[in-house]
Every structure is written in structure tokens, then in C-alpha cells.
Amino acid sequence: MKRDDFKEYHVPAKSFDYQKVPFAKVVNLKFSQVGHEIQYRTSWHESKLTTVNVRKLSSTCQKNRPTTGTFPSVKISSTIHPLSQEKKNDLKSMLKWLPLEDKQYYEKTILK
């Protein structure tokens, strides 16, 4: 990976309320390009997706005012955090269950 591949999403993410989505329980997730909506299911037996608007409204924002759907700009990260040896060992232990293409990718990039 190149240095420009590492992006800083912490600042733009602060304008969204991702706590509304129970990610640990989600089995099906759909992001909308418009309207800051996320749709999800927590069970395959559910026929309909639950829709949540994750946009935080600031105190200066009017509740009835429509949002533009534009994601805030993302900057290149100033720091790169390398994987710990423990994480690399975990990845190595999982290689046997990965498809061949994924296994080769990890071996040639992250685990070399």
C-alpha cells in the first residue's frame, strides 16, 4: 500500500451518529449515497431493512432543512500505524481458510 492509501476518517466521522446502528449484530448492511441513510438487518429472517439516518444535526442546523448528501472531505493520514506482530500472527493463522487470491495478497503485501 502507498502512503496516500491511508486516509484520516476520524474528523469527518464526527458529523455522523454511527451509534444508531448495532454493527455487531448486523447481518446485512446497505449504505445510501444520498441522505446519510444506512439500512440494515440483524437477522436473515427479517423481510425488511431497518433504515436509520446517521447525520448528526448541529445546534445551528434546522431540523426540517434537507441535507446535501455530501460527505466531508477526507485528508491523507499524517501517521501510519503498522500492524503489530500479534496481528500478523493472527492473519497468518487464518490464511488456510482464505481463498487463494486473498491468501496470495496477504503473503505478498502485509505479511512479507
Outline the structure in words.
The chain is an alpha+beta fold and 112 residues long. The protein folds into 2 domains: 78 residues, no CATH class; 31 residues, no CATH class. Strand 2 and strand 3 form a beta hairpin. The mean pLDDT is 82.
pLDDT under 50 segments (min length 5)? none
- Give the C-alpha Rg: 19 Å
Global geometry: flat
Distance between the amino and carboxyl termini? 12 Å
On the 0 to 100 scale, the average pLDDT is: 82
Which percent band covers the strand fraction? 15-25%
Question: How many H/I helical runs?
Answer: 3
Order of helices and strands: EHEEEEHH
Strand order of the largest sheet: 2-3-4
Q: What does the main sheet amount to?
A: 3 strands, antiparallel
Helix fraction by DSSP (H/I, runs of at least 4): 10-25%
Work out the number of β strands: 5
Give the count of structural domains.
2
Structural class by SSE content: alpha+beta
